[in-house]
Task: inverse folding
């Protein structure tokens, strides 16, 4: 029997549409992975009657509800009061919560506003959930059928508290058998092309295959039942990864998380103590901006003239293939800057092609390495900002492939 | 008496968190502007019983509900069936809907799958809503207290149908008096500082004041009743804008939309046919990346050495104030590149300060103009990426202030 869970979000800014409720989606994914059946999302504004009615409804039909928002110090933060009235549990002063709020302000050399005292008032049976990054503590309590967990609406605080504390509490409280999700993260290949790679594959019974196109990558998801044998799982994942090929830059869910494309590149560059010089055209500084804080990036040139003076490349017969130019420039850049690697990005296509979401531009990346030059030629589609992001990521991906020994 | 509205979203992908429900926020904004009071958002999956229960609930408590999703041809698209059962109205074949679906396929030279026949079955009293961009028609009907409007879940189709058809139908059906929302968009000043600027202001009766901190700006919102006199409105907005001062870069809701900070700068730079040379340190290419597609950006330098060699600036007595250096460099850059403007961004603070979300870095921007140099000294707080974005925007904002004649 699966446990039924709901998500509840409080706030006028959500109900009136000023804020898109991304917390609900994030929490739902977490609960699905834990093994809950997700039934409903609800959002209401800062109205005491609406809140009381809603908590009472949910208390009768769900086993677990994660609630975000309404824990702040101002008069429109009504969650604790509404829960107290709905469940008939009086609010009590929690000395430890109060001490933590005082400490939060003390660390910042600021006086605690009197209004924050309110955040230390929790319903009688509430279990406190510490908030390491803000003043609003969370809490949890049983009300009729449902275990309610209340977290702040600020996404960074909510996610930190869920990951560090709530997740484990839920696993201890509920008889859950979490499925095991393995995610193969790829770049440079679309969802339908991946589906073709996997055409005809025989997955073991009970294993579910899914796909998700995120802005920076495509994810292939394999969901294994909690009791699936480990060695069979490894073999199944290896089979899928091999079929997709060098596009896969990371796998999550088998060992430790490897992070996104930049994390993967950064880990290898730091481990090998390598340095990179970079010349951007199509991405116009975006790749350098993404690398902020990474010391292996030694030199950046943003070449604005390339696109302007050569917007006609694609229309003229000057150069069908810009790879030779990119390769020579990469070698020159590496020699000039005396770095271990030099990455040069060129593109063909006019400014109009770049801006037109229905037109394609061609990206030419060349990477000069200690053992010669490697290069790629790839297309970027879609609106301007999407093409720009693809240009930055696909240049970085050439370096990733070299570092992972996956260059053809 | 305000009309109460709700938003309902159907789909497993929403309830399980694979898709963030941005439709709900968009529709809420539209309804608020029309004059509805938004009370609740709900999302459920593709389950007939859950859908019937929910439609019955909403029918008893709301005057209007906009529903998205569940109108497709597949077996998990259950909306029409659920509404039919809940309201006791049998499904009927709508010949015109069927003809339109057939035509959709005919235009694309594709055979209509038999499954699509289902989309022509609408509850008895339903009013059809044409879909110019897809096969799923929408429909609307009265069920108890509530006027339900059903639209497809695909955002582009939903928005087109709402804007072209539903909006007007709602204005005709409900006694609405749309409020008038004026938004003052500012940068470089926090929400609480704006509140202090407005301390003691006497707003006319019925005018509501609100704030919203977006990633790239802080918005001050003035909501005027629909029948508020125009000249008083202008005076009230002018008073608020003057109190906030030069931080305001745009005002929406009075005349045409001016867009975000970059839009405002780009419009002025293009109109005056000016060019800009830019040197970035703290934002490391992010400002150049934001300016993609704008030809007035003539030259970009990303200076990585600044932060590395001078991480100790803040610790040493070398330079308490980097403004003189930034000003000289801006003049030199302008002379070298022969542009109308040259913008130089420097900062003090070590790499550790930059990465530490609890530490502050100081940004020094200097702009060389045809009539001399102007400069600012500002703080950036928060996590790395937030500081980087602030650094890019605050540099751009110096140019905006000069272009709007708001430099001190």
Result:
């Amino acid at each position: 029997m699966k446990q039924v869970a709901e998500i509840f979000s409080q706030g006028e800014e959500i109900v009136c549409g000023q804020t898109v409720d991304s917390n609900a989606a994030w929490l739902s994914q977490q609960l699905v992975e834990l093994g809950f059946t997700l039934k409903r999302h609800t959002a209401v504004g800062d109205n005491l009657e609406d809140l009381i009615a809603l908590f009472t409804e949910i208390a009768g039909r769900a086993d677990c509800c994660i609630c975000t928002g309404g824990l702040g110090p101002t008069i429109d933060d009504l969650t604790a009061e509404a829960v107290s009235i709905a469940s008939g549990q009086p609010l009590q002063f929690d000395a430890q919560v109060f001490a933590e709020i005082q400490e939060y302000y003390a660390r910042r050399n600021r006086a605690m506003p009197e209004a924050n005292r309110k955040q230390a008032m929790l319903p009688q049976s509430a279990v406190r959930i510490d908030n390491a990054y803000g003043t609003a503590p969370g809490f949890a309590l049983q009300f009729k059928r449902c275990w309610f967990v209340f977290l702040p609406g600020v996404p960074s605080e909510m996610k930190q508290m869920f990951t560090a504390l709530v997740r484990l509490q839920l696993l201890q409280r509920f008889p859950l058998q979490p499925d095991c999700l393995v995610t193969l993260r790829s770049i440079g290949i679309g969802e339908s092309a991946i589906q073709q790679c996997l055409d005809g594959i025989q997955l073991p019974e009970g294993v579910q295959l899914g796909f998700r196109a995120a802005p920076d990558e495509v994810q292939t998801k394999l969901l294994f039942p909690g009791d699936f044998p480990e060695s069979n799982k490894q073999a199944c994942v290896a089979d899928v990864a091999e079929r997709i090929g060098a596009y896969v830059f990371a796998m999550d869910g088998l060992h430790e998380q490897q992070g996104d494309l930049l994390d993967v590149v950064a880990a290898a560059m730091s481990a090998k103590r390598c340095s990179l010089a970079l010349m951007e055209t199509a991405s116009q500084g975006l790749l350098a901006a993404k690398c902020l804080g990474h010391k292996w990036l030694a030199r950046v040139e943003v070449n604005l003239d390339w696109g302007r003076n050569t917007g006609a490349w694609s229309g003229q017969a000057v150069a069908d293939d810009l790879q030779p130019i990119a390769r020579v420039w990469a070698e020159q850049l590496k020699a000039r800057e005396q770095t271990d690697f030099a990455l040069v990005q060129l593109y063909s296509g006019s400014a109009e092609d770049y801006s037109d979401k229905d037109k394609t531009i061609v990206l030419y990346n060349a990477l000069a390495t200690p053992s010669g030059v490697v290069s790629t030629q790839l297309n970027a589609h879609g609106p301007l900002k999407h093409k720009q992001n693809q240009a930055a990521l696909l240049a970085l991906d050439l370096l990733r492939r070299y570092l992972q020994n996956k260059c053809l």
Remarks:
- Residues 256 and 401 of chain B are 20 Å apart (CA to CA).
- The first helix of chain B runs from residue 12 to 15.
